[in-house]
Amino acid sequence: MKKLSLIIVSGISAIALSNCAAPTGPETQRGAVTGGLIGAAAGGIIGHQSGNALEGAALGGAAGAGAGALYGNSKDQDNYRRGY
User: Fold this and answer.
1) What residue stretches are annotated with the Glycine zipper domain (predicted)?
2) Which residue has the higher pLDDT, 15 or 82?
3) What's the confidence (pLDDT) of residue 12?
4) What SS3 string covers 21-74?
5) Domain total in the chain
6) CA 41, CA 44: separation in Å to the nearest integer?
7) What confidence tens digit (pLDDT) does each residue in 23-72 have?
8) Coil, helix or strand for 20?
9) Single pTM value for the model
10) Alpha-carbon distance 77 to 10, whole Å?
11) In this predicted structure, what is the pLDDT of residue 35?
12) Exposed, middle or buried, 25 (CB in 10 Å: 0-12/13-18/19+)?
């Protein structure tokens, strides 16, 4: 139960913080949220193995959000060049 609540809190934090970013395209935002959720879950699981689930979830969420935003931004740029 403790792990599940940690993942839920991390996910809500990722969603809340993604709305504070500069104006970006929809794929960038979607990538940041998705990456943050997946990263927080993976970081929480990996961190739990070493006894630091909260730190793992926080670091994983931040890294996942950054990577997802970069990927989403590249998709937004491709769509912009194509004229969508």
Assistant:
1) 34-78
2) 82
3) 67
4) CCCCCHHHHHHHHHHHHHHHHHHHHHHHHCCCHHHHHHHHHHHHHHHHHHHHHH
5) 1
6) 5
7) 578 888 899 999 999 999 999 999 888 888 888 898 899 999 999 999 99
8) coil
9) 0.67
10) 29
11) 92
12) middle
**84 residue type, one letter:** Y
Closest CA to 38 of 13, 57, 55, 52: 57
Residue with tokens 């809500």: 12
Q: What per-residue confidence (pLDDT) applies to 82?
A: 86
User: Hey, what are 80's tokens?
Assistant: 């912009």
- Which pLDDT score, from 0 to 100, does residue 53 have? 87
Residue-range definition of the domain harbouring residue 14 = 2-82
- Quote the CA–CA distance of 37 and 18 in Å, as a whole number: 11
